[in-house]
Amino acid sequence: MSNDLISHVGFCTTAGVGDLNHLEASLARIAELGSDVAELSLCGEDLIVGGRVLEARARRLADICAKFPLRYTVHGLIVSNFMDAEHLEFQKAAVRAMLELCSRVGADILVHHSGHAPMAPRRVIAGYDRMQHDALAELADVAGRHDVRIALENIFAADDAMYRQQPSEVAATVRAIDHPNLVTTIDFGHAYIEATRTGGDFLDEVKAMGPVAGHLHVHDSFGRPYTMTKFYHPSEAAALGIGDLHLPLGWGDLPWERVFDTIEVLPGTALILEIDERFDADRAESIERARALAARLNARHAALAA
Length: 306
Prior knowledge:
Helix content is 44%, strand content 18%.
């Protein structure tokens, strides 16, 4: 068995609009690109209603996934938020359903976004953090019954009026819960934007996540917060270098070699390229570079262990 820290590399599907035919075509292309894992972006596939899995569609999803020689992870709802007191029970029910879907397709990771709430005094923020802590601990137990790990992902705040945990605080939450079915997802692009917004140290923040990281999201950008939000085409945001662009590797200025010379991750971690299908002609080059980055980290780990 491989002792590699990063053991599989691949792409995410593009979140659809309930068209499982498109999902199947997306997986066929991901396999053709030489991936050994695919992340199923199930937030837009109409597989859950009111916290309940739609049985016929779930069976079809499992049949589609079985056609390809891929490992699977799952990205949960983009709106998932365990700091959302008003809708917390709805939020937890949706995550339970996502964990069931993971089990149906043999996915071992469910990516879950870290929470957000209005900025508030420290005592109120402590309550947000406790709410998220307790919900994650509860759902990690459920994940264990499905043989899935929830991977808490760092996100950037939209502005100073929004509270988000910093990447190092996301890691601290996972360490505090200390559950075998709870890890972090390092999203390097999100961390880069947040470090620019706050003046934090990008490399220190992602390094802090490493010891509890079981999943990686990799895509390029310039780390520029959304100081402008109205664009008529995604290419305009890319032209200005603003926002969470999800570009092919090398198109932005993330210091990838420095990152992979800095971080550690847990054994068996997946590296998922979150690069939109509109960049399909450039995805082969990105997976080649991603494999080189994974090999760089794995070789460094092997040398230290020798």
